[in-house]
Write a structure and sequence with these properties.
- It is a single chain.
- By secondary structure, this protein is of the alpha+beta class.
- It has ten helices and 21 strands.
- Strands 1, 2, 3, 4, 5, 6, 7, 8, 9, 10, 11 and 12 form a twelve-stranded mixed β-sheet that branches. A five-stranded parallel β-sheet has the order 16-17-18-15-19, with helices on both faces. It has a four-stranded antiparallel β-sheet with strand order 14-13-21-20.
- A hairpin with an 8-residue loop joins strand 13 and strand 14.
- Helix 7 packs parallel to helix 8.
- The longest helix has 43 residues.
- It is elongated and about 80 Å long.
- The two termini are 53 Å apart.
Length: 691
C-alpha cells in the first residue's frame, strides 16, 4: 500500500534498488545531491545533474522534461553518504515559467523496480520558488527512510546548493542551467501547423453553449478552450493541479471528482458520448468537432465585486458567493469546497511544522547525548534547554499561523452559512422557512458537517453531488459513537433511523415534484415511529414493506426496473420504455438488515447496490454490520459500495491527500422543531398536483 506523505513525514524503505518518478505539467530539471550526516555537500562531485547525470548508486535525467525517472541503488552509496536529496528546478533562460506557482504541482513517487509505489508526495505550497528539495532518502541506524521535504528556494539552484553547504554553489547552478539550455536547443522542434486543408486535424469552434444544449447565458463570454466550470472540478480537496486521491473525504463519493457533474441516468433524456443514438456533429464537407458533447466550452463568470477591497495589512472581508460559477448556487458550492481545502491545507501545514519541530529537537538531543562528555553537567542541560526553546518557538509560530487562518475561515463561515440554499443548509437555517418545491435539481446536497481537532468550532458543510453516485449506509452499530456514550443498542438504532429519515426528507425536498420516489423495507416494523413523518405526509410510494413477503416484493420490483432500464440502454433506445414508466429517481430505505432477508433477497440487494445507482435506483441501509457477520465475506462488496455515515459524531472520514481524519456530524433536525413535517407537507402537496 502506498504511503501518501505530507511535508515532514517519513516512511521506511524495505528495498535498496529504487526508482524515483517525477511528474509535472511543464518541463523541469531533476537532480539529486549526496550529503553527509549533517546534510552537507562535500563538493560538486556529490551532485547528479543533467551535465553529470551519473554518480555511484545514482542516475538522473539528462535534460529538462515533464516526467523523470531517477535510478537509485542505496547499497552502492559510499559509506560517507547519509542523505540523498531529490531536487527539482525550473529551467533558466529557455523562455519557460520562472516560478513553481505558475506550473502544475509536482508529484514525486518512490517505487520498487517492479513499479509498485512505496511512498509518494505532492509538493504543495510553492509560489515564487524556482527550485525545491522534494524528497530526502536518509540513513539512520543502518536503515534507509524517505522523508517529504518540500523546501523551496526563490533564488533557484544557487540558493539551494548554498543552503546545503556547497562553496561552488553559483558556479554549479550556472553550469546546470547552461547544460539544460543546450539540451533544449538541440531538441527537435515541433512541426509547423498544416495549411493544406486537412480537415481531420482542424477542430471547429463549439457550436453550443456551456451546457451543450443552447446558447451561453446572457453576458457570458464567447467560446474559449474547454475548461472546468468549478476551480475544483478535477482535483481533490487539496488544491488545483494536484493528482486526485482515492476516496476523497467529502462524502467519500470519491466525491467523485468534486465539482464534476455526476452522470445522469441514461433514461432521463439526452445521450452521452458513444451512444448509438447520439447524432454526429460533423457535416459533409465541414470540419469535425472533437469537443465532448457534455464538456463546457466557456469559462464561468468571475464573482461580482460585492465586497470593498481589503485595507493594506488587513485580511479580505469574506463575502458569500465569492467564487466562480454561473449561478449563486454554483458559487456557494465552489466557495464551500474552497473553505474545505483551505482548512485542510492550514491543518496540514500546522501538523507538518509540529512534526518538523519534534524531529529537529530529537536530532539536536541525539547529537548532545552522543557525546559522553555532554551528558552530565551544565553543558548538557543548556543544550537540552536550547533545543526545547527552539521547539517551542517553532510550534508557537505554527500555532499562530493556524489560529490566524482558522479565524479567517470562521468569519467566512459566519457569512456563508446563512446564505446557503435549502439543499446546502442545515435544518435550523432560516432558508427552510421560505422553502418552496424547486423546479430543477440542485448541484449538490448537504449530508452533514465536517471538522478537525484543530478547529472544533469550525464546521464545513459536507456536500455531495446529485444524483448520488453511491448508496448510503447509516451505521447503527455501537462502535459508531466517537466517545462511546451510546451503549444502548435500541437508542442508537432509533437515532440511526431518525438520521435516515432526515436524509430521505432532504432528498425529497430538493428534487422537483414527481422526480424522486422513496420505498421503505422495515421487516419487523421497528422503525415505525421514526418513519411516521414520511408515512403520515404520504410522500412514500407505498406503505413500508413488512415481513419476508414484503421484502421479496419490493426487491423484485426494483430489480426488474434496473434490468428493464439496462436493456433499453444497451439496445440504444433509452426512450423506448413502456408508457407510464416512472422515470424518477428511486430510493430504497432498508431497516433492520438482515432480518427478513433470505439468500435470494441478499443477492438482489447486492445487485441493486452494484448496478442501481447507474440507472437511478439508490440504496440507503440502516444496519449494524456485526449483525450480518453470519454471511461472512459475501457482504463485503455491499458495505464497500456504500458511503458510510453515522447517527453520532464519528471521525471515520479519512482524507488521503493530507492524512486528516475528519469528524463527521449528521444533519439531525433540532429537538422540538416542526421543520421536517412542514417541508414534507409541501412536498406531498406538490406531488399531488403533479399527478
Amino acid at each position: 500500500m502506498t504511503a501518501e506523505l505530507v511535508r515532514g513525514q517519513n516512511h521506511p524503505l524495505s528495498q535498496a534498488r529504487l526508482e524515483i518518478r517525477v511528474s509535472a505539467g511543464a518541463p523541469i530539471v531533476a537532480g539529486a545531491t549526496l550529503g553527509d550526516e549533517q546534510g552537507k555537500i562535500h563538493g560538486v562531485e556529490w551532485v547528479a545533474h543533467p551535465g553529470a547525470p551519473t554518480l555511484p548508486g545514482l542516475e538522473v535525467s539528462r535534460q529538462a522534461a515533464a516526467d523523470h525517472r531517477l535510478a537509485v541503488d542505496l547499497d552502492a552509496m559510499p559509506e560517507a553518504v547519509h542523505r540523498v536529496s531529490v531536487l527539482l528546478a525550473l529551467p533558466v533562460g529557455v523562455g519557460g515559467p520562472t516560478r513553481f506557482g505558475a506550473v502544475p504541482t509536482p508529484f514525486v513517487a518512490v517505487t520498487g523496480l517492479d513499479g509498485v509505489e512505496i511512498a509518494s508526495y505532492t509538493v504543495t505550497g510553492l509560489e515564487a520558488e524556482s527550485a525545491v528539495v522534494a524528497l530526502e532518502l536518509y540513513r539512520r541506524q543502518g536503515a534507509w527512510k524517505v522523508r517529504a521535504i518540500g523546501q523551496g528556494y526563490a533564488g533557484g539552484l544557487a540558493d539551494l546548493f548554498t543552503d546545503q553547504g556547497l562553496p561552488q554553489a553559483h558556479q554549479l547552478a550556472g553550469g546546470i542551467n547552461e547544460a539544460v539550455a543546450q539540451g533544449v536547443a538541440r531538441s527537435v522542434p515541433a512541426p509547423p501547423p498544416r495549411t493544406d486543408g486537412d480537415r481531420s486535424r482542424q477542430a471547429a469552434a463549439p457550436a453550443l453553449g456551456p451546457d451543450q444544449s443552447g446558447p451561453a447565458p446572457q453576458g457570458a463570454p464567447g467560446p474559449v478552450p474547454p475548461q472546468q466550470t468549478s476551480p475544483y472540478g478535477t482535483q481533490p480537496p487539496g488544491g488545483p493541479g494536484q493528482p486526485t486521491p482515492p476516496n476523497s473525504p467529502y462524502g467519500a463519493q470519491t466525491p467523485g471528482a468534486p465539482g464534476q457533474p455526476a452522470p445522469q441516468p441514461p433514461y432521463q433524456g439526452g445521450t452521452g458520448a458513444g451512444d448509438p443514438a447520439q447524432p454526429s456533429t460533423s457535416t459533409s464537407g465541414g470540419p469535425i468537432d472533437y469537443s465532448h458533447p457534455r464538456r463546457q466550452s466557456a469559462a464561468p463568470p468571475p464573482p461580482p465585486p460585492t465586497a470593498p477591497p481589503a485595507q493594506p495589512g488587513q485580511p479580505a472581508q469574506p463575502v458569500a458567493g465569492d467564487a466562480t460559477g454561473w449561478s449563486m448556487d454554483e458559487r456557494l458550492y465552489n466557495q464551500v469546497w474552497g473553505m474545505f481545502e483551505d482548512l485542510a491545507r492550514t491543518a496540514a501545514a500546522y501538523r507538518s511544522a509540529v512534526d518538523f519541530a519534534d524531529s529537529r529537537m530529537e536530532k539536536e538531543l541525539d547529537q548532545v547525548l552522543s557525546d559522553p562528555r555532554s551528558r552530565i553537567g551544565g553543558q548538557g542541560d543548556a543544550a537540552r534547554e536550547a533545543a526545547q526553546a527552539k521547539h517551542s518557538q517553532l510550534v508557537n509560530q505554527a500555532r499562530a499561523a493556524l489560529d490566524r487562518d482558522i479565524a479567517q475561515l470562521t468569519a467566512e463561515s459566519d457569512v456563508v452559512e446563512p446564505a446557503l440554499p435549502p439543499a446546502y443548509a442545515r435544518w435550523d437555517n432560516p432558508a427552510w422557512h421560505g422553502y418552496r418545491v424547486p423546479m430543477e435539481i440542485p448541484m449538490a446536497l448537504r449530508l452533514g458537517d465536517l471538522h478537525l481537532p484543530e478547529s472544533a468550532d469550525l464546521r464545513i458543510p459536507m456536500l455531495v453531488r446529485l444524483p448520488l453516485e453511491r448508496g448510503l449506509w447509516i451505521d447503527s452499530g455501537r462502535d459508531g459513537s466517537l466517545d462511546g456514550s451510546f451503549t444502548d443498542a435500541h437508542d442508537l438504532r432509533r437515532l440511526a433511523m431518525d438520521t435516515a429519515v432526515a436524509h430521505a426528507a432532504r432528498l425529497l425536498a430538493v428534487y422537483p415534484a414527481g422526480e424522486f420516489t422513496v420505498h421503505v423495507i422495515d421487516p419487523a416494523g421497528s422503525g415505525a415511529q421514526a418513519l411516521a413523518p414520511l408515512v403520515q405526509t404520504g410522500v412514500l410510494a407505498a406503505p413500508p414493506a413488512v415481513g419476508a413477503a414484503g421484502v421479496a416484493d419490493v426487491l423484485a420490483r426494483l430489480t426488474q426496473r434496473v434490468d428493464l432500464v439496462q436493456m433499453a440502454v444497451r439496445a440504444g433506445a433509452p426512450d423506448s420504455l413502456p408508457p407510464g414508466f416512472d422515470t424518477s429517481q428511486q430510493l430504497l430505505i432498508v431497516n433492520d438488515f438482515p432480518h427478513g432477508f433470505d439468500d435470494r433477497a441478499v443477492n438482489q440487494l447486492r445487485y441493486l447496490a452494484d448496478e442501481g445507482s447507474v440507472v437511478g435506483v439508490h440504496l440507503m441501509m440502516v444496519a449494524d454490520r456485526e449483525e450480518a457477520a453470519g454471511y461472512g465475506p459475501l457482504l463485503d462488496p455491499l458495505w464497500r459500495s456504500l458511503l458510510r455515515l453515522t447517527p453520532v459524531p464519528d471521525d471515520h472520514l479519512a482524507d488521503p491527500w493530507v492524512g486528516h481524519a475528519w469528524t463527521y456530524e449528521p444533519p439531525l433536525v433540532p429537538p422540538g422543531s416542526q421543520v421536517l413535517q412542514q417541508v414534507l407537507a409541501q412536498v406531498a402537496e406538490a406531488r399531488a398536483k403533479y399527478r
